[in-house]
Design brief:
The chain has 281 residues and is an all-alpha fold. It has one domain. Helices cover 72% and strands 0% of the residues. The chain has ten helices and no strands. The longest helix has 35 residues. It is globular and about 60 Å long.
Length: 281
Amino acid sequence: PFALSTIGLVNGIIAIILFGCTSCFTLYLLIECAKIVGGRNVSFFSISSRTYPKLSIVFDLAVGIKCFGVSISYLVIIGELLPKVTLGLFPSIPKDSVCLTSLFWITVSMLIVVPLSFQKSLSSLKYASTISLISVSYIAILVAYFFFSGNRPIKNIDNDIDTNFFRVLPIFVFAYTCHQNILTFFNEMKITSRRRDNRHKKAIGSAAISIAIAITVYLTIGITGYLTFGNTTKSNIISMYPPSNKLVLIGQLLMAIMVSICFALQCHPARKSFGNVINYL
């Protein structure tokens, strides 16, 4: 919603769909590369070793740094959300309580996400990922609910591209960040055909469905959230709803759980990429 408030409603809708399609196409290209390399150990390193052998280490280093940086941003979100949830659930808690500090909740969350981050395979996180999908679905429904149930007038809706366009551009790009795990996903897929390796078609189908679902969720949250608050929309739209509302508190809690799981999903490829860098050196 915040990105739409910057570049306008129609432009935002076009950007969500355009970047979603672009992301789907790049996933297709990576799957095609994985098919050509073959085997169960396809990685960015093995692919780049065939195209730019001398720069293969650079690709893994870039993936590792990117995943590490994104995972740190998730910890910041956790530290911002959980103190608000705690205060909403226990309003009588002292304002100087350690339970209302970001450091406390980041530390607590690390006790949960670190074991998830060191799982041997990506498939080990399938149940955690299911919880993440439930969480994002709830948030989408929550935002839509407040839009349809509210009587407030729509504020300052326009379609002009603001000068801060390039500041919000990464939001559209990183909204579809899943490419770091697609090769691992391909490696771990089961071959269900006795005649040939059919992981290629299954992976393409899964990628297309995932991106389609993501586009639908982003359009739902983006449009209804933006139409609720207009150009006053903040970067964290959940924080704009009544903090004492139980539905909002549940949404904040689920968002914290979701980014905690996403932390593990970022650490898995980061571990592999940094491992390749170390082995190369």
